[in-house]
Write a structure and sequence with these properties.
Length: 659
């Protein structure tokens, strides 16, 4: 018995000083501290197998200790404290554990060589101290033996049966759900107030005498018209009174009461004026020039358009309106803004990033951030403009709370992508939608006509286009036609081929047709000149072939026809292309050349499904009824030969040009 007792005692005590490395598999509710000396005496009575657990051999312990001091340079004192701390924990665990490891058997012989009481006196003294402290504790502080038994039972069951303890059901905490990226990002969109409006909402501008400065009304009526467009009506009815009252109540914090504004309105519906009027109304009386409104647009052509609109309606005010001219050097513009800070700045995102990084101006006084053609802006990184802008806003604005700047997000094809909208940090957003069930609405007076071309005739598509252009000119003399193709190369090729066919008189056509094509092989300045000539050409007999660079926002109200020579790739692109005509409540025609069943299916199943049309507007129809269409598609053989020769001539000219 003696040896058992000694053994057991030895193991426990060596455990006490060893830093056993294994973690106990079972958590311990260890309440009243146990007295090892008691166990040693009990061991003989209960005849429980001696606990052999995690006792590192004294010899190894000494090595471990020297390793620590050698390698890590920890002081003896520190490593001692560490190992003592571990030993306490291990000791607690060891008493509860019934596992055995062969490693410990090998340890026993080494540890029995030295007298026990001298080596572990510090640990045993500490236990005596804790025992005396516990004696001093009131009885209530001690846990009854039986709960300990329960713990032990549970733990022992746990070790042997290895069945997991039944856990309580997980509480799905809503706040935790919101932390899931896939949900919280859509919160802003989900919680936004949706305000539907009808396309019949038209009012006289004089109706807004209470909300708009009279100079402003006078400018609008003289430069635009006396009547509002629906999107302007709904915004002037809902947002303008709120803006005026919040601004007069608290000029510093008015933005928060108003919240952010998102508008999904069809092309040519007057969105520019819809956001320009509130800006001028609120900022018209400011005295010191500071950047108070930034209007972001995706293309340079749009900058000029928005600038013209703002300049017209802000006449008579001292507002400084400036546009970033990409043709100017950045340094030049930087100095200009440093010395003459604009109140309203119209700029592309990339250029804004440049100026923010050069500190051309600060955003301390910014009150409005307008995104025109917002889906385009949010779809392209433009030098990571979003992060750079919001970083500078966070730095410059003294009022750090959400809603310190009113964001006005406008598009005819507003994105519903919550992730993209999330990056705008919307505050109390209101979304203005037409009353249609579908996402994109087409202008009320837009007529869509489809030309179904059999695949066998696809080779003669350019010739068929020329015939259609001829027909349009014949039927409406003042026509201005914008032809969309899919790429720069297509624009160059088609333009050259049409001009060659006109020159060779392939069809009896009025060759005064002003024909030009926009593409990136000529300079931006030349492109802009072509657009200007196209927009201002007196004889109105003009055809412009372009890529989608002309599809966004370009406001040339005299365009009578848009021809999708190559189909757009998305319904958004379709809306923007067709939206170059039928603007500002004028009539317009969009003609779609659909080659083969594939393109016909694509148009009906991909492009048409997202579109809504005014109930009393036009529905898509065939460009020609069948008989006339077959006449159009019929190409006499001699004409086919001349057409093929024309192509060969062009190809040889191109090859010569390349040589
Ligand atoms: N109240 C109005 N009365 C008459 N003309 C207007 C009015 N509001 C805007 N316009 C004109 O309507 C045309 C289209 O306006 P605007 O370019 O703002 O449309 P939009 O909705 O921005 O189109 P897009 O989506 O293609 O950019 C412009 O020529 C503008 O001058």
């Amino acid at each position: 018995m003696q040896s058992d007792e000694m053994r057991c005692d030895a193991i426990i005590k060596t455990k006490a000083v060893s830093g056993a490395r294994k973690q106990q598999p079972i958590d311990r509710m260890f309440a009243a501290r146990f007295d090892p000396t008691k166990i040693a005496t009990n061991a003989t009575e209960t005849a429980a197998p001696p606990v052999k657990e995690f006792a590192l051999p004294q010899k190894r312990r000494r090595e471990t200790k020297s390793d620590e001091t050698g390698d890590e340079g920890t002081s003896d004192q520190e490593s001692d404290e560490e190992s003592d701390k571990e030993s306490d924990e291990q000791l607690d665990d060891a008493v509860e554990t019934h596992g055995e490891t062969s490693e410990n058997e090998a340890n026993q012989s080494e540890t029995s060589e030295q007298p026990l009481d001298t080596r572990h006196s510090s640990v045993l003294n500490r236990f005596q101290q804790t025992l005396s402290l516990q004696d001093a504790l009131s009885s209530s502080d001690k846990v009854e033996r039986n709960t300990e038994e329960e713990d032990k039972d549970v733990s022992s069951k746990d070790v042997h049966s290895l069945t997991p303890i039944p856990q309580p059901a997980r509480v799905t905490d809503r706040s935790m759900r919101l932390l899931d990226p896939s949900t919280y990002k859509s919160t802003a969109w989900d919680t936004a107030t949706k305000i539907h409006y009808s396309s019949t909402m038209i009012k006289d501008f004089n109706h807004y005498k209470q909300d708009l400065d009279e100079r402003l009304i006078k400018n609008i009526i003289s430069d635009f018209s006396a009547e509002t467009f629906p999107i302007q009506t709904i915004l002037f009815d809902t947002v303008l009174p709120l803006l005026n009252s919040s601004f007069s109540a608290n000029k510093k914090r008015f933005t928060r009461q108003v919240g952010d504004i998102l508008v999904n309105a069809s092309t040519g519906s007057g969105k520019t004026l819809a956001y320009a009027v509130p800006l001028v109304q609120i900022l018209r009386n400011r005295t010191v020039n500071r950047v108070r409104a930034i209007i972001l647009v995706p293309t340079k052509i749009l900058i000029h358009q928005v600038y013209d609109c703002l300049s017209k309606i802000s006449q008579g005010t001292s507002l400084s309106i400036s546009m970033s001219k990409l043709e100017n050097s950045l340094k030049e513009e930087h100095n200009k803004f440093l010395h003459n800070c604009p109140d309203i700045l119209i700029i592309t995102p990339g250029r804004l990033v440049d100026h923010l990084q050069m500190n051309s101006f600060d955003l301390k006084s910014l009150k409005f951030l307008v995104l025109d053609e917002a889906d385009r802006l949010l779809n392209q990184s433009f030098q990571n403009w979003n992060q750079v802008l919001f970083h500078h806003l966070a730095e410059d604005k003294q009022d750090k709370r959400p809603g310190n700047v009113i964001k006005m997000v406008f598009s005819a094809t507003l994105t519903t992508n919550a992730e993209k909208l999330y990056n705008l940090h919307l505050h109390n957003p209101k979304i203005f939608l037409t009353d249609s069930v579908k996402l994109y609405s087409l202008p009320k007076k837009l007529q869509e006509l489809n030309v179904n071309i059999p695949t066998a005739k696809s080779l003669f598509k350019p010739l068929l286009l020329l015939k259609i252009l001829h027909d349009i000119k014949t039927s409406s003399s003042n026509s201005k036609i914008l032809v969309f193709v899919k790429s720069n190369e297509a624009s160059i090729r088609l333009g050259s081929l049409l001009q060659a066919m006109l020159k060779l008189k392939l069809i009896d056509s009025d060759d005064s047709m002003f024909l030009s094509s926009i593409h990136s092989n000529i300079s931006k300045g030349s492109n802009r000149k072509l657009i200007h000539e196209f927009a201002s050409s007196e004889d109105m007999k003009s055809v412009l072939i372009s890529t989608d660079i002309m599809s966004r926002g370009i406001d040339i109200t005299e365009i009578t026809h848009v021809i999708n020579y190559d189909l757009p790739i998305s319904s958004q692109q379709y809306v923007h292309r067709c939206g170059r005509t039928a603007r500002a409540t004028t009539e317009g025609v969009a003609i779609n050349l659909l080659v083969g069943k594939g393109e016909q299916r694509f148009w009906s199943s991909h492009l048409d499904t997202d579109l809504s049309r005014d109930v009393d507007g036009y529905q898509p129809s065939a460009y020609l009824e069948d008989e006339k269409l077959s006449q159009l598609l019929h190409i006499e053989s001699h004409l086919q030969d001349r057409y093929k020769n024309c192509i060969k001539e062009l190809q040889s000219n191109n090859e010569e040009g390349i040589k």
